[in-house]
Target: Sulfate permease
Amino acid sequence: MSKTAPASEASVALPQPTGIPNSPWKTLGKDLPAGLVVFLVALPLCLGISLASGAPLLAGIISGIIGGVIVSWVSGSQLSVSGPAAGLTAIILSAISTLGSFEAVLAATVIAGILQMILGVAKAGIIGLYFPTSVIRGMLAAIGLILILKQIPHFVGADADYFEDMDFLQFNGQNTFSALKAAMGGISAGSALVGLVSLSILLLWDNVLTKRVAFLRLVPGALIVVVLSIVLNNLLDVAAPVLRIRPEHLVSLPSITAWQDFANVFTAPDWAAFRRPVTYTVAFTIAIVASLETLLSVEAVDKLDPHKRVTPPNRELLAQGVGNLLNGLLGGLPMTAVIVRSSANINAGGQTRMSTFFHGLLLLTSLLFLESVLNQIPLSALAAVLLVVGYKLTKPALYRTQWNLGLQQFLPFIITIIAILFTDLLKGVSIGLIVGIFYILKANYESAYFLSIPPAQQAGPLHLKLSEQVSFLNKASIVKVLNELPNNTHVIIDGTNSSHIDYDVLEAIQNFNVSAQERGINVELRGIKHVQVLGH
Model:
């Protein structure tokens, strides 16, 4: 029998955070431009998710404003952005049908917010720490791929679908690949031209100009792209009307010209819905799904943060609860921390919560003053920004790194990617988590004991030394090695260095002690207490 022992792992030197901002006021030069980029990305997302959810169009904007202006300060995260999430669209659409009105869904959102606050106080956020790194990296890489695949139709002006449709199966009946195929047959020349110019400028700005001219690093390429895309679209309108971008491929922000229009933006919940049991069922669903998406997102954002800051998960649940309570009272869509906008924030150079706060202020301002300008932004220019964000999340170097770490890291990583691509975020992560747990169980199986076998020319007992912690997960491997011991031998089962041995394992050892007599095996137990075994 071969000798089995836990494999030692080489220590990995972790990067030490340097230059962590200690005041949001000292980094305004980076945070304000980053907040502007996040705003430009978030605006069409907020509107599009409202559309896909079957909610009033401005409900997404309200959620984005609350996420930026309020949640950014309650949250412990410096870089995550909160707002309406694509992962909740199907739930909200179904909830409106189940409860009969969006106002009733707002009542459920109030309850969901309170539930999330309770989860935060009860310290339930610790569950986020149990997601393996390989699964989180797989989630980020999958989101990068999805961004690329989903934004190509907008990039070429062939898709009027909502802007952050992240699921494989879309609400209009298509899937990711059928939408791509349809896009190739319906390219809008004007949108495609603006998209290609925008992407070229972004690549030139990030890879050439900012490296040669230091002061250009203060201006995010996405801002340059947005401004030039408006100029280019207006030039096309005059010089080549046939290339003019159609209205459905531009940002669409409702017009607010009077105080009454602004007051009508807000919607109160249906108070009568609080008396219906089904409202609480919907609220529980929203609270659980929103909390899981939030914990996954902040875990991913922490890994992308150049300063490697750690978000307190319980405080994040509390912050999301406050946000959803306000959303329910004011007419906003349920929110989560969202990885796409957070990634855009990091890639644009955001340093502190000021960038998220500034994006919320801009969303609020846009309702009042910027509608005429913002409605000229082509979606293909914003798609170009997200294509670059997507590539940075799923660079080939990431796949090489995971492969070099071994199958126990690569398989959960790649399976998470595939599962998310063909299902949705939560299902895909769940599948990846199952694969990750399999390798955890396998590691436990292999590290339960150390079996010492004397050389053939020397007499002596077999020595089975148990690990410091022996749980029920180790039972299978210990039973296997005991059953494979040769007959007519002397074996020492040593638990003297074990601080805990699970009852299931003790019972298995006691059973072996009884059956070993029939095989001529002399068993010597050290540091292993006797337990009552059924039938003995």
Strands lie at 81-84, 335-338, 449-452, 462-466, 469-470, 490-494, 500-501, 522-526. The CA atoms of residues 75 and 319 lie 5 Å apart.
